[in-house]
Specification:
By secondary structure, this protein is mostly helical. It has two domains: 8-38; 48-88, no CATH class. The chain has helices at residues 9-39, 48-61, 75-88. Helix 2 packs across helix 3 (75-88). The longest helix is centred in the first third of the chain and has 31 residues, at 9-39.
Length: 89
């Protein structure tokens, strides 16, 4: 390694202080941005189809699970398929 590329301890500490002070100022602006953005945040409303699918999946899932509560082999995929089929009715 070239000696010209190495930092002395004092240079290194000065560099660290510069980075830390920059992070602090960034953190202050991030907190301010989060405060203003969280005030106007609204939740997305679920669609009628997603509500039907959720209900159908809950009713179907027990058929594709083992007694221990784990999914049978290929069970999750089949449960999703059947729930979509029921939700479309």
């Amino acid at each position: 390694m070239d000696r010209n590329m190495m930092l002395t301890v004092d240079e290194y500490m000065a560099f660290r202080r510069l980075i830390d002070s920059e992070r602090e100022s960034e953190g202050a602006t991030l907190v301010n941005n989060q405060e203003t953005s969280s005030q106007g945040a609204t939740k997305k409303r679920s669609t009628a189809y997603s509500r039907k699918y959720k209900k159908a999946f809950k009713s179907v899932s027990s058929r594709y699970k083992l007694k221990s509560g784990k999914w049978k082999k290929g069970g999750f995929k089949r449960a999703v398929k059947e729930a979509h089929k029921e939700a479309k009715k």
